[in-house]
Write a structure and sequence with these properties.
It is a single chain. With 158 residues, this protein is mostly helical. It has helices spanning 3-19, 24-27, 38-61, 71-77, 86-105, 109-113, 133-155. α1 packs antiparallel against α5, α1 runs parallel beside α7 (133-155) and α3 (38-61) packs parallel to α5 (86-105). The longest helix has 24 residues, at 38-61. It starts with a helix and ends with a helix.
Amino acid sequence: MHIQQTLATFEEFAAWLRSLQMEPAFWERPIAEGKWEVRDVIAHLFHWDEYLLTHTLPAVRIGKDIQFPDFDTYNHSSLCYRKLSQQDVLNQAAATREQLVYELRNMQVDALCAHISVNNVSHDAHTGAPYSLLYIIDEFIHHDCYHQKQVLSVIQTA
């Protein structure tokens, strides 16, 4: 995927967040039985954007490899956003994604496309593709889409 197209697709998520309108009952509805509530899913995505912005981009800028935390532990820590209102979470999540895209657009193409290791692994185990920051962003786009479908399935049951 072309760099600008990837970043535009990644940015579309912020517009989607800003467009979300739902009754509080849907905000607090689980995406499936025994699963997170809609608010937790949005907070989870927001929390990962914060990680990319505050940890991943600074590391890549100075030529370091990416180190992601333990996924389960980090995902659970996103529940700290439950104290925020629906509008605050949506606004902060959209603003964080917009800032993240802004920072990505201002990086050198070489930094976006350079081969890097992720948690000491150089290639995606499923595809065999070498890791780069752009590859990671594309993976996050797929992650966004997966969770968007979950959220929309809850909203559409209204």
